[in-house]
Amino acid sequence: MPVPADEAEEYTCIPLACVYADTVTGFTIYLRTPPDGNNYVFYREANLVFSESHRAQLTKNGVTHIYIHAADRKQYLRYLENHLDVILQDPNMPVDEKSQVHYSCATELVKDVFDDPRSGESIKRVQRMVNNSVYHILQQAGELSSFINIMSVDYHTYTHSVNVCVFGVALGHRFALNRSELRDLGIGLLLHDVGKSEIDSEILSKEGPLNNEERDIIKSHPQIGFNILADSPLLLPTSLEIILRHHERRTGRGYPGGLRDHQIHPFAKIAALVDVFDALTTRRPYHAERSSFAAFQLMQRQMKDDFDPDYFRELIRLLCG
C-alpha cells in the first residue's frame, strides 16, 4: 500500500548494499515508487529473512536504495553495528559511505552507553566499535579526511565523544602506538565523558554562563565517570586514566587532581589535547565553530603550556598538512 506524500519525510533512504542476505533485519523495508516519486510501498516485514533472491530481484529492477520508517532508525543502526566489520571491509562500498555508517553507529552507541553506563554489554559493544575504528582509520586510504568531512559541527556530547576518539586514535597512530595500545586509547576516548551521564541535562546544555556551583558540577564528571567504570573487568587502567585525567593540564591547572606534566599518562595527554580541539571546532551556544587553523591559533596563544608540545605539533601536521 502506498504511503501518502505528506508522510514522506518520515522515511529514510538507505543503501541496498547495507542490507545483508539471509539476515533478519529487525526493520521493515519500503520501496519508493516511482524511484524519484513520493510514494512509499511496503516490501518486507521486519521479522522475515531478507534473502539473496530478494536482493537479486531488487538489483534486477534497478533498485540501489531502499527505505525505512523513521521509527526504525535505532534498530537499523544496531543492525549496521552488528555487521560493521563486514561493511568496513567491503571493497565495493565508497569510503565516504563507510565513514557515514561508522559515524552514525558510533554516535548511537555512545547514546546507549549514556543511558546505561554500567552495562557490561555496552562496554563490549564499545570494544567492538573501537576495534572497527582502528581498522577503518589505519587501513583504508582517505579514511581520516572522510571522517572529518562528515563530523557534526554542532557540539553534542555523543558526537563529541566520537570525534575525540577519531582524532585521538589517528594521533596515537602517528606516534607508532601498536594496535593493542590504540584499542585501549580509543576505548578511553570514546568513554571519556561518560560521567556527564549523571549530570543534569539542563546544566550540560545551558546557553548562558555557568555559575560557580554549576561549574563545580561540570568539573566533577571525570571523577564520576571513573567511579562508574572503575570496577569493570572489561576496562584496562590505561582507558580509565583517560576518563579520570582528560582535564588535567601540564601546568597543574587542570582537574580533578591538579597533576603536572610527568604525573599525567600519555594517553590522557592525547585526550586533553583532542578534547579541547574538538570543542573549539564545533558550534557551541556561546561560540561559532572555528576552522582548524583558528583553533590552533587560539590554543597556541592562550593554552600553549597546557598541552604536550610534541602531541600538539603532530596534531597540527595531521590536520593541516
Automatic annotation (TrEMBL):
PROSITE patterns: HD_GYP. One of its GO terms (molecular function) is hydrolase activity. Residues 127-321 form the HD-GYP domain. SMART domains: HDc. The keyword Hydrolase applies. Keywords: Hydrolase. It is an enzyme of class 3 (hydrolase). Pfam families: HD_5 (PF13487). InterPro entries: HD/PDEase_dom, HD_GYP_dom. Its EC number is 3.1.4.-. PANTHER family: CYCLIC DI-GMP PHOSPHODIESTERASE PA4108, CYCLIC DI-GMP PHOSPHODIESTERASE PA4108-RELATED. This is HD-GYP domain-containing protein. It comes from Eiseniibacteriota bacterium.
